[in-house]
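[User] I have long wanted to understand how a fold can be written as tokens. Those tokens are not coordinates but codes from a learned vocabulary of shapes. Could you go through the record with me and say what the backbone is doing? Thank you; the sequence and its tokens follow:
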Amino acid sequence: MDADRRTLINLAVFIFVALTCGFLGVWVNTFVPNQESLMDSIGAGIWIAIPLITVLLLRTFAGDGWSDSGLKPGFSKNLKWYGFAALVFPVVISIALFIGKTMNWVDTACFNLAAYMPVFGSVIGFEWIKNIFEESVWRGYLTAKLDRITRNEWLIYVIVGLVWGLWHLPYYLVFLDEHYLAMFFPYGRYAVALYAVLVICVWTIMFTELFLLTRSLWVVVILHSVEDALNPLISEQFVTVQADKTLIVSPTFGVIPLTLYLLTGLYLRKQRLRIRPSEKNFG
């Protein structure tokens, strides 16, 4: 079988599995009542694990191989991008919160760096491990395989963003605790589920470009882990955003940080094409 045709078939299998496994998990949970936490439920485990298992099977037994998985760290040539990945979310969130505080939209009275850093430190290790698995799926497989069959990065952004975003639907609609969700987005499950797809599509440009720039899974693992480890700013109420200003300055959902992430992604694209002009698409 032609290698590109095999890649297309395997991608179709992966995308189908990714878009359905969460709802399979929700269905499985209906047979296992009284689970203490839906995020710790069997169904959530299915949602999280099945995409990774599918990638392992496709790479090992279906001809996809491991050469483009990004497992080599490439420290010598990627050192500045590791630093970039570690800093981009803290810098953007700091800018958004500074603007919010200046406008009296954000209350930072409870923020204390000495108190926050142990919380960050206690979370980052778990997030690192979790995101090795997650980034092996979204960047290490889906992005890498799409890059094999097309040089149109805009198409890659759209496909990865939509699949990654829609994979999260069961998370926002079912698995995530409603009280926890309301701390970040006080407009209900259905609104956040739809809006989160847009957020993830914007993030995808930045994640994709860092991966394509470095060809290293570990850079985006750092990027993703730092982002996740900053969530306690809101969930532990170190910072409080006025509900009616969530769509403006919220670290996760605000238009200000999203605009900065979009600009960052486009900057990274420009840098990649400057370094490797042969990767310019036909557009």
Notes: The chain is about 75% helix and 0% strand.
